[in-house]
Specification:
The complex is a heterodimer of chains A (about 140) and B (about 140).
Chain A lengths: L5 E8 L9 H20 L3 E6 L5 E4 L5 E4 L9 E9 L2 H9 L9 E6 L5 H20 L1
Antiparallel strand pairs in A: 1-5, 1-6, 2-5, 3-4
Chain B lengths: L7 E8 L9 H20 L3 E6 L5 E4 L5 E4 L9 E9 L2 H9 L9 E6 L5 H14 L1
The chains are: A alpha+beta (about 140), B alpha+beta (about 140).
């Protein structure tokens, strides 16, 4: 029997929640996190996952003319890392998100479905299908 | 500094998934074609490691044992991550140069460029602190 599978991205938000922890707490959360990822990997549920460095750049503006630094460090919102999951459904993705060892210290996990097509392209295709229907109806 | 670096991975996070608002169908079609060509070009150069768009649904899990699950406030926001691309580049500068050529930048999207690490910075801090404590 084939279980339906879908891909989800967990984005770990907050790059400052570990600052107040004692070395022992930090050590525990770090090893819990590693064990958590290893288990998910063995179960075939985590396909990849990485932390992101707190340095980085934000590119914006026409032709990317504006290059700004973070801020990615000491932020509640900044993405500190991610897991890429292959699971049955959103509930399973949420269940996994709830196991994140950083949660009790203030980390936030954003759970997002991975899409086949970007929403802009999907909207463009819908719009073009609608105008074709319209053209068909008036033809 | 011009020292050549080992290639490493960079994550591009595309923020602001509503850049198509206000574009004519023709402009939109052309830009989407340019995005596709941009992506194919990077793939042909062997620079793409992974990449996917994300759906608009978003849940934010927080609190002890994840007791709070809220709908992400991000769907309509300029900050929302609409997709990601993991690329290989020789430096942050090269990754930024690649990000700068992403066509929807002309329409208000922003691209966050972040080095991908093997080990979490807080793992490192924990190790250093423990090393100090046991020294």
């Amino acid at each position: 029997m084939n279980t339906p599978q879908s891909d989800y991205m967990l984005l770990f938000r907050g790059t400052n929640w570990d600052k107040e922890l004692s070395p022992e707490q930090l050590q525990k959360v770090v090893s819990d996190w590693a064990a958590w990822f290893e288990r998910l990997t063995k179960q075939g549920k985590a396909l990849s996952g990485h932390p992101l460095q707190n340095e980085g750049k934000i590119v914006s503006g026409k032709k990317g003319r504006t290059i700004a630094d973070g801020p990615f460090a000491e932020s509640k919102e900044a993405v500190g890392g991610y897991f890429y999951l292959r699971v049955a459904d959103e509930n399973e993705a949420l269940e996994i998100a709830r196991e994140c060892p950083g949660l009790e210290y203030g980390a936030i996990v954003e759970v997002r479905p991975v899409a086949e097509m970007c929403t802009v392209r999907a909207r463009a295709m819908e719009a073009s299908a609608r105008s074709q229907q319209l053209a068909g109806a008036t033809a | 500094m011009n020292t050549p670096n080992e290639p490493s991975d960079y994550m591009l996070l595309f923020r602001g998934p509503h850049w198509d608002r206000g574009l004519s169908p023709e402009e939109l079609r052309q830009t989407l074609d340019r995005v596709m060509a941009w992506f194919e070009g990077l793939k042909d150069q062997g620079k793409v490691k992974a990449g996917q768009p994300l759906g608009p649904e978003s849940r934010m899990v927080s609190g002890r044992n994840g007791r709070t699950v809220a709908d992400g406030p991000f769907a309509e926001s300029k900050e929302a991550v609409g997709g990601f691309l993991q690329i290989e580049a020789n430096s942050l500068d090269e990754a930024v140069a690649i990000a700068k050529t992403f066509p929807p930048l002309d329409y208000g999207i922003t691209v966050e460029v972040r080095p991908v690490l093997e080990e979490c910075p807080c793992f490192k801090r924990a190790k250093e602190q423990l090393a100090l404590a046991t020294a």
